[in-house]
Amino acid sequence: MHQQKRQPELVEGNLPVFVFPTELIFYADDQSTHKQVLTLYNPYEFALKFKVLCTTPNKYVVIDAVGAVKPRCCVDIVIRHRDV
């Protein structure tokens, strides 16, 4: 008997994930803070797609704003302050 591997069902919607740090602080007089890393953790047994939205794109740039996180893994997302 030949068993077929079942494909996981795709589910649309929002799920809670872990983001660290919970807050980014940029200082105008400290250029080392103009680029910061946000880490997104996926605690689930399945991959997640993500999209980071920016409410003020003239001030901030999100590097790799769209992507996927493998199960039980994390990705780093770089946020740059562009208009100091």
TrEMBL record:
Predominant location: endoplasmic reticulum
Signal peptide range in chain numbering: none
Membrane topology category: Multi-pass membrane protein
Protein origin, superkingdom: Eukaryota
Keywords, comma-separated and alphabetical: Endoplasmic reticulum, Golgi apparatus, Membrane, Transmembrane, Transmembrane helix
Subcellular location: Endoplasmic reticulum membrane; Golgi apparatus membrane
Domain MSP per the UniProt entry, residue ranges: 16-84
A Gene Ontology term for the protein's cellular component: Golgi membrane
Pfam families from the UniProt entry: Motile_Sperm (PF00635)
PROSITE patterns, per database record: MSP
Transmembrane is among the record's keywords: yes
Task performed by this protein: Plays a role in differentiation and/or proliferation of mesenchymal stem cells. Proposed to be involved in epithelial-to-mesenchymal transition (EMT). However, another study suggests that it is not required for EMT or stem cell self-renewal and acts during later stages of differentiation.
Listed name of the protein: Motile sperm domain-containing protein 1
Organism: Ictidomys tridecemlineatus (Thirteen-lined ground squirrel)
Gene: LOC101974228
